[in-house]
Design a protein that fits this description.
Elements (H helix, E strand, L loop, with lengths): L8 E6 L5 E9 L2 H6 L11 E5 L5 E2 L7 E6 L5 E8 L4 E2 L7 E6 L11 E6 L2
Length: about 120
């Protein structure tokens, strides 16, 4: 009998400095995972985020916590952000957004223009 396959683990890196920005990155790239996102999630682990792609704008309906929202271009460059977005709000993405990074409020200090890299972590 085979062991169940674990989903790959990822982290988010500053492409220029190589610094790890997010240690636990969840990638939501299927219809269901993008729809679900962090809805109904009450607590997250430290240094965690979810990357939703493809994605333009987001909402925080049914969320139990405030989040920071970072809008990314096709090459994973930060092109906009909303800090401390509370539950039951909508965030309209700037033109050129292809994916959205969500972190717990106060955990994202990414500036516009920062280029990111996603790295798979070997288990």
């Amino acid at each position: 009998m085979q062991k169940p396959q674990l989903p790959p683990r990822h982290r988010l890196i500053d492409a220029e400095s190589g610094r790890v920005l997010i240690e636990h990155l969840e990638i939501a790239d299927s219809v269901w995972s993008r729809f679900r996102g962090w809805m109904f999630k009450g607590k997250t682990r430290p240094s965690s985020a979810i990357l939703i792609r493809p994605c333009g704008s987001i909402h925080t309906m049914w969320m139990r916590m405030a989040i920071d929202v970072v809008f990314l271009s096709n090459d994973d460059t930060v092109i906009g952000a909303r800090r401390g977005l509370r539950p039951w709000r909508i965030a309209i993405a700037p033109r050129g957004t292809t994916s959205v990074l969500e972190t717990p409020a106060g955990q994202s200090d990414l500036a516009i223009g920062v280029k990111l890299r996603i790295e798979e972590v070997k288990r």
